[in-house]
Design a protein that fits this description.
heterodimer; A: 381 residues; 8 strands; B: alpha/beta; Rossmann fold; four-stranded parallel sheet; 40% helix; binds iron/sulfur cluster
């Protein structure tokens, strides 16, 4: 990977914001969408601004992810192309979700410059909220050490933590003290680095080596957590036990960047039933548990969106019942994505798997016909 | 128990080839097990993944889907899209340790009466040997 360097004397976050501030002042973009600390101090929200001071005071890498960035970008560009150039400063999973939302026509990337950076992960929202000061210092330690114990479970085994489908990627890993790497990944990215006179022709070997090292650790962690997760949720009994505390609040769906539907199918009239229908269901099943259709909601949601799931874990942070819903979705998503060899957020032009097909594929899922069946229930038996 | 188990089977077929196969079977007076309930859809491609999941959670012991052979879809590619959705649903079930083998997808052409009755019988025996679907009678799905 090739790139250049910029100054980060005030620390990583300040390095990123001063890069943005300069790009803004040189007219590389007209506005910046970036996370910033809320006035109360204990959480973060997104702002869209052209004010250089606000950008300078923003937090490009907050310690938590209360709102997935792709959702914020969707709020801005859902109705169409931005009339002015917007730089969206996001973590890799947010960039990937934005690319997926572009395919789903919920984000218009036409006038958006996507900026990503190496992401050490985030802390669990609830843990952070219980002691933000402690959380802040833990996060600065993480930015330095890149270990994983205190991260959210999905972050601990995230392997997409670095350069992704963005226009510009900022490399923190392997950089010298007080420096940041800048990698233009698209012509749009080069437009910005050229305007800022950053020569991006340096081979970033130390960055690459560090990224590979972290990725290897994450992959190892991933294998371990998968075994643990399967132990916990696999099979009818365990899965239903895990979901039995679900209160049906739909937080997981509402905060998910990919679940954009204005009316979720699982909250629609399609699942409403007459009293008599409930009574006969209760009779058939011995009893009926409310909230209804918990497993249908989760499996159905997986079937709707797991191919685009970016494993960001926002759903799990939002679950009031501490159900490992992000880990479960991420586990399933890896498999459904593997089925179609689809890597969400990687390629803006690759179609979503459910809008296309190959004629010669998936034969394992076709039930072979063994000529005339002569088993017990056979036709003329 | 195994002998007395009378599985509830839902047989979803497209309005062209699938039901065509069933009509041909009836014209020849062929037999298929009574516990198989046929549900006609315009095209297997019109089936949503939730249509596949819901019966398996709500009372069916098995679900079998038949549409036109590859290349024969009345709408060109509905059966190819259905195959993708079946593969998706089966993969989701598998990855969570739920039984994906209660869902079958097999092509049946208009004239293939034998293939239709064979599928109905074979799938019924297959589900009988598996036993009742544990999800169908659980109150907490
Ligand atoms: S399902 Fe969860 S992990 Fe996947 S994209 Fe949605 S919020 Fe992120
Ligand atoms: S679960 Fe399905 S219907 Fe509901 S919001 Fe998500 S994608 Fe839309
Ligand atoms: S957020 Fe948690 S409790 Fe709410 S619907 Fe999702 S899994 Fe259930």
């Amino acid at each position: 990977m090739k790139g250049g360097q910029v100054d980060a004397r005030g620390g990583i976050q300040a390095g990123i914001t001063s890069f943005l501030k300069e790009a803004l002042s040189k007219g590389c973009f007209d506005a910046v969408m970036i996370p910033t600390r809320v006035p109360a101090g204990d959480s973060f929200a997104w702002i869209l601004t052209d004010n250089e001071d606000l950008v300078a005071g923003a937090s490009p890498l907050p310690p938590v992810m209360p709102v997935q960035g792709a959702r914020a970008l969707s709020s801005i560009t859902k109705k169409g192309k931005a009339p002015a150039k917007i730089a969206a400063v996001m973590r890799p999973c947010e960039v990937r979700a934005a690319v997926e939302l572009g395919k789903l026509k919920q984000v218009d990337l036409a006038n958006v410059t996507l900026l990503s950076m190496d992401c050490p992960g985030v802390l669990e929202l609830s843990t952070y909220l219980s002691d933000p000061t402690k959380g802040d210092s833990e996060f600065s330690r993480l930015l330095d050490k890149w270990d994983a114990e205190s991260l959210r479970p999905v972050c601990r085994s995230c392997t997409h933590f670095s350069a992704t489908a963005s226009d510009i990627h900022l490399g923190l890993l392997g950089a010298q003290a007080e420096r940041l790497y800048v990698m233009p990944l698209t012509p749009e990215g080069s437009r910005v680095t050229d305007a800022l006179n950053i020569s991006a022709d340096q081979e970033l070997d130390s960055w690459q080596a560090k990224v590979d090292e972290v990725r290897q650790k994450r992959e190892e962690q991933r294998r371990k957590s998968e075994v643990e997760l399967k132990e916990r949720v696999e099979g009818t009994e365990k899965l239903l036990a895990t979901l039995s505390t679900c209160i049906g609040c739909r937080n997981c769906m509402r905060v998910c960047p990919i679940c954009y539907c204005r009316q979720c199918f699982f909250d629609s009239d399609a699942l409403e039933g007459e009293v008599a229908a409930h009574l006969s269901r209760a009779e058939r099943k011995g009893s009926l548990r409310f909230p209804l259709d918990t497993l249908l909601f989760h499996l159905g949601r997986m079937s709707h969106m797991s191919l685009s799931c970016v494993e960001c874990g926002t759903c799990e942070d939002a679950c009031p019942m501490s159900i490992p819903v992000g880990q479960i979705f991420s586990h399933v998503a890896r498999r459904t994505q593997e089925l179609f060899k689809y890597d969400p957020g990687k390629n803006r032009y690759e179609p979503l798997p459910l809008v296309t097909y190959e004629q010669d594929e998936l034969h394992d899922f076709e039930q072979p016909y063994v000529k005339t069946y002569s088993g017990k229930g056979a036709a003329d038996a | 128990m195994a002998e007395s188990f009378d599985p509830k089977i839902l047989y979803v077929m497209c309005g062209w080839c699938g039901t065509g196969g069933a009509e041909t079977a009836s014209a020849y007076g062929m037999y298929y097990p009574e516990n198989v309930r046929i549900f006609r859809v315009n095209c297997t491609g019109a089936l949503s993944t939730v249509h596949m999941l819901r019966p398996l959670l709500e009372g069916a012991d098995g679900l079998v889907i038949s549409g036109c052979h590859p290349g024969d879809c009345h709408y060109d590619d509905g059966n190819f899209m259905a195959r993708r959705k079946v593969a998706l649903v089966k993969t989701i079930l598998d990855s969570l340790g739920l039984d994906s083998d209660r869902l079958w997808f097999r092509y049946v052409a208009h004239g293939e009466a034998r293939r239709f009755v064979d599928t109905a019988a074979e799938f019924t025996d297959h589900i009988k040997s598996k036993g009742p679907n544990p999800l169908a009678t659980r109150s907490d799905t």
